[in-house]
């Protein structure tokens, strides 16, 4: 049966038939998602909606299920139960979702240039047996300009800095014409300047109404840069505006003892968990 | 000097051997590019060894005749690659363990079968280490046809294989049929192995898949260039190897593989030395996490 499923996927690709985008439906709808691998519960009863153009920061301790959630939304993993709908249909029919991988999960010695990687985003639109046209290369150059990497287009990917690597993947998601971008810990291990650069690009994307889900560790950056945050630890502990979500009772529920709470003049402020200090590689 | 180069060409078997070695080199290096990039060297080695029982059965059925051995090898290669996939997918056993089990078991079965024939040592040696100078015109045609199909397939699915090898998750979000493409690549490796059997034999096969491609990997930062360079290195090694074999009377398969290996170590040592003297030039991303 797996073979038939594969064939169906293939035919989807060959005739480039996508699921239509239903009007008046949210871009992303997660209903009672649960995921369990062997005996580990990764996610439990996750339900939320996102409208087009909204930007959500998902924060939570290591192993809270952030990557699993993103992969299920992307249609790469199947949930044990529950459903994900993208514009009213299951994700596996959409190519408007881009998953930006964690930098540590990439083979940086692979013999490709920055332009090659960004061009990969066009492949879903190209279809089998078609080569990139001039318009596809224009698209690649344009997205590289947006992220400020035009000068480095012909470099091998190993020669990029961490921030540049992350921007390259954003360019690839743009070349894919993604409407929903899932960014898995894009800020981990970047210096402040590179992080600011990424936020600057994300602000530009706001005009194009790209919907963004981003997972991160730094609560301060999340509350400064996002209107909507989710506190995740297998379950949704709380979701909403940062000042509603980042309250001691929720933070303690999410992080337990890994969290430091500090009193300030504006009330208590919470700091990130201790696992991923700046510059330390994420494992 | 010229007669040094032309003298072997008087012999038809030598010309056929050269043609086979050049073409096999090209096919193996192009397929081998993916073997190297995806870390499938052990799989390739195992698959080539596991073909032996198929050849042995064909050899026994045909009473020692060589004509049908190609087809026996082809069927075995395809069945084995399906088998390895099925075992590693359906049990808790990790893939490399599954490969190890099938690899050694099948190889032993092959040796056992061939050893039932009294004069088995000569034939066994040919299967294990190749006999490119024994290639008949019909063998050459099979090599060209199947090798050609492999090259055409690789080029037709170039961008799909590229995405699948670099970023399987992207392949999945682009809704590429990842399992089918993975399977297709395995079949291509299997056919490439069968095509090259006569040149280097099952025991040395993995060198043709891995060594020229790895040498090219050291030299370039782009995939198409890596394929072209690997193909060039492999076919030049084929030519040099056969001349060495002719003049020094060493086994042809071993001579070709040794030449490939020499190329690799030459490139590797030149690069190591250059890196040591120009360490300033290497770009190390400051904030790589």
Task: Give the SSE string of chain B.
Answer: HHHHHHHHHHHHH
CATH architecture of chain B: Orthogonal Bundle
What's the SSE pattern of chain A?
Answer: HEEEHEEHHHHEHEHEEHHEE
Shape of chain A: globular
Commentary on this structure:
- The complex is a heterodimer of chains A (283) and B (289).
- With 283 residues, chain A is α/β, with parallel strands linked by helices.
- Chain A is 34% helix and 24% strand.
- Chain A contains ten helices and eleven strands.
- In chain A, the strands form three sheets. Chain A has a six-stranded mixed sheet, sandwiched between helices. In chain A, strands 2-1-4 form a three-stranded antiparallel sheet, covered by helices on one side.
- In chain A, a hairpin with a 2-residue loop joins strand 10 and strand 11.
- Chain A starts with a helix and ends in a 12-residue tail after the last strand.
- Residues 276-283 of chain A have low confidence and may be disordered.
- With 289 residues, chain B is mostly helical.
- Chain B has a single domain, classed as Orthogonal Bundle (ABC transporter involved in vitamin B12 uptake, BtuC), CATH 1.10.3470.
- Chain B is built from 13 helices and no strands.
- Chain B is globular.
- The termini of chain B are far apart.
- Chains A and B meet through helix 1, strand 5, helix 3, helix 4 and helix 6 of A and helix 9, helix 10, helix 11 and helix 12 of B.
